[in-house]
User: What shape does this take?
Amino acid sequence: MTQSLRIQFFVILLVLFSELAFAARIKDLASVRGVRDNQLIGFGLVIGLAGTGDSATNVFFSIQTMVNMLTKLGITVPEAEVDQLKFKNVATVMVTADLPAFARQGDRIDTMVSSLGDAKSLQGGTLLMTALKGPDGNTYAVAQGALSIGGFFVQGQAKGVQKNHQTVARIANGASVERELPHEFNLKEEVFLTMKETDFTTASRISQAINNSLRDMVATLVDGRTIKVDVPEFYKENTSEFITRIETLNVEPDTIAKVILDERTGTVVMGENVEISAVAVAHGNLFIQITEEPLVSQPAPLSPGGATVVVPRTRIQVEEGEDKLLIVPRSISLGQVVNGLNAIGVNPRDLIAILQAIKASGALHAELEII
Assistant: This one.
């Protein structure tokens, strides 16, 4: 291959990759309506702690929960002895989990365990069987197992050492799904794609990409966040296969011009479509330094009288930067905006003030957001 052919081949590859670099899959831009996780919550007990559990004096419901559990297991606790119970190796916790879409009975899901009382650490604990319920009050999963906190806590008489958070733990695959959510996804005759970010242009491009791929007008734009897609006859009773075909289509998303300013950290983030009209920027750099240099005045040797006197002296140094009036030309790309602002020679915190002033003048064609 000659040198000229190599150059042409390289240019073609560069063009192809540059076009694909801005494309994103539909599955990364939108989600199928109704296909989502469901949050579960439950109240349970963690046992096996090394004296770091709830205190009976401050957490009264810890004793009540323990008595109720023992009663369910057939152990009777006399009412007179309830107030004498102390379980420093037991902690009351809240257990949370996310039930994935289309989860089946017997599937295992991760759970998060968080202390509810005043337990110092959940290290080494075991969660007892806990029912996880949904917003409708039905039990969808049951959690149980050993906790993992990813750290440790040791305490001496005068000092302790702690690594990571000790009152929140995780149980990998700690819950078993016991109840399934009813669904008939494959029988759907239409599906709705919901955009993760509202944008009419991107939604229209998704609709066009689906229609071009199927060579049929099956996708219509409902609004800037929703696309309605009719399931073709070929995919009737097999909607899942239809979704796998359209969610991998590449679409170039469109973004609004936005500048994010964080005054706390001095961070400036600009989007791709930010443009600046021709504007003159003067960045003043006034530097004032005040130095106190006291002088000591003493009388001459062997003089008949006199006293030592401290005479104050102040030095003030004023410097002002020069050549700071620059013209930033009209910019058509993010790179030109950055190069023009960097030419002024300012730090990020000064850049925030400059961008606010440019926005006030009407020369910054972007949404300015301060966080």
Notes: Residues 38-177 form one domain. Residues 3-21 have pLDDT under 50 and may be disordered.
